[in-house]
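Q&A log
Question type: sequence-to-structure
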Amino acid sequence: MDRKAAEVQRRKRGIAPVKGTTIACEQCGVQFVRSGIKRKFCAPCADEVMHQRARDRVNRLARERGAPQFGEELNCKHCGTTFKRSSPRECYCEKCKELQKRSALPLLKEAVRKYKKEVWLPKYWEDPEVRNRTLQSYKKSRNKRKADPAFTINERISVGIRQSLARGKGGARWQALVDYTLADLMRHLERQFLPGMTWENRGAWHLDHIQPLASFNFTTPSDPDFKAAWSLPNLRPLWACDNLRKSAQRTHLL
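Response status: OK
Response body:
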């Protein structure tokens, strides 16, 4: 009733209605139905404008604190090589980024070791609540991993996809990056079980790529090679010992 009364008063004062009217988007010019007085862009352009404003704000704050900008030459934090920066948080050259991807940078290893020794371990042993919470979380994950095959397979492929990408999944679910679901993957694997393979002994076999990942060249999920590498026809269950012996070789035709 209050909203209706306020609308009647606005009409009496000569204020034109806003909600439900059709206007042209200020970004692309397409006509759309306005849902509020602050709505000036259509739905696709609104997302683009919002992200651009966020990027501009991040760049402005970075300039204010003197951070390096995109395309600016920067010395690698690990080896000191000069390279051109291509992202806001990039601080390693291409060669060192590969080491970072494999968690092999001595600088990061030392930082993790120092954090565990000086921060996490004292808090773990001195605070019973932190210790109990950590143990309960570990036990819960371990029990679920033992009881639920889907949980184990989901973890395996999520970690595998994240490690295969240069900058990880960016918080996205792995099922959003491929053309199949967890249920499709489990049915595909079960149809290829070798004699003796079951979901109960899933710790004895690996998720193998028929054409090894090393033969593909991709850095982001949008690369064609990523779809080919993680497609269902390229995945199969293989005994752990055979998979380790196979390494990055191709022994089976698609």
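Response note: The first strand starts at residue 22 and ends at 24.
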